[in-house]
């Protein structure tokens, strides 16, 4: 009798151990365990396909660092309790429609580091209303389809860095009212339009550095009243208006270095905004006009910004003749028209006595603005990103995202930028310049002689004008 009881107890013990370890239904070669949460760990096994025997009770699935190529609509259809799914660092090139359908409890999805993915279905993330973290970094994406983030009302962290994005559709992020971190660096984005960032009223950190941005619309940051960190360094910007920056009332950290700033009257409103800005900023190195090359826009005097460069060919020649940090030529499109003060607008009246054409025919070529190309200057600092080895839920150490300034975030992330490594804030300096009243433009447009005054040649310009009048009259006769 005692032997029977002993045998029964042993049987129950075996059954309990198998249940506790989750051995029942566990895919071959994978490791399954129930505590602290039902988990299936199949990482780094060289798998070519997602296992079909994944237990339906699983809440966490680790499939990273394999050779998976396809995510099928049936791969996780039985895992209704799934909260975390890692598929990063595979060879995934296709995600079938409905692959994540029914995963209403999913909170984190990582499909980054799949360079052959390239295309995402507009309905790929439909129904993931509890998703708070989405990794799509280094996937070779050239476009985000319209509505791809629709309905992701809980999303807080969105990683899109290291793709080939050329542009962003208007209202791409409209439903992401709770988004706090948006990483868009290391793409090829050229323009930030009026509605590109609309709807992200709680955004705290926006990283747009190392793109090809030439133009930021004057109302692009209209909804970003809670933004504390903005990185726009290493782009093709030449002008950014103060009106563009006005909505950023919570901004603390700003990096604008590595652009080619034109420090004439078009920079006046940005200069004035910096007088009120209380946060830390990198330098804004002037590349035009020649007399201000290498100087920090923030530290100039208001008198340095009077007048304007009236020869747009010089601006384009200077930009075209110098390569960007990535080795590619910068855009020659003229981003200067928007936000240009009326008093400094370029006079294109062909009847002007001292127009460029007449100066070219005269013997006064020495008064023209020089066209010597500027030498490429090294950026203030070379960004080095910290290597982060975050532990998620205490069971798995995830690979660090080395190209992101804060790596991968866990649920208890300390969001203070001040706790990052020092090299992330290299080149940032407090704004210490005294406040000054904004100098308003005159209602009357400046004459050609007055505009030339900003180039430091008022006396010669007036003399030239007096000499040219009789000469032009004689020629006309």
Could you characterize the architecture of this molecule?
The chain has 477 residues and is of the alpha/beta class. The chain has a domain at 238-353 and 362-383 and 426-477. The protein is built from seven helices and 21 strands. It has helices at residues 2-21, 242-245, 268-276, 312-320, 356-361, 448-453, 458-476; strands at residues 31-33, 39-41, 60-62, 70-71, 84-86, 94-95, 108-110, 133-135, 157-159, 181-183, 191-192, 205-207, 215-216, 229-231, 253-255, 261-262, 280-281, 286-288, 391-392, 396-397, 429-430. Strands 1-2-3-5-7-8-9-10-12-14-15-17-21 form a 13-stranded mixed beta sheet, with no helix packed on it. Strands 4-6 form a two-stranded parallel ribbon. The chain has a two-stranded parallel ribbon with strand order 11-13. Strand 19 (391-392) and strand 20 (396-397) form a beta hairpin. The longest helix is centred in the N-terminal third of the chain and has 20 residues, at 2-21. The N and C termini lie far apart (133 Å). Residues 13-23, 313-343, 345-397, 399-422 and 432-477 have low confidence and may be disordered.
Largest sheet: 13 strands, mixed
Radius of gyration: 29 Å
N-to-C span:
133 Å
Tell me the total number of β-strands: 21
* Adjacency order of strands in the biggest sheet: 1-2-3-5-7-8-9-10-12-14-15-17-21
DSSP strand (E) fraction? 5-15%
- The tally of helices reads 7
- Low-confidence segments, given as residue ranges, are 13-23, 313-343, 345-397, 399-422, 432-477
What best-fitting shape do the alpha-carbon axes yield? elongated
Structural class: alpha/beta
Order of helices and strands: HEEEEEEEEEEEEEEHEEHEEHHEEEHH
Q: Fraction of residues in helices? A: 10-25%
State mean pLDDT (0 to 100 scale): 74
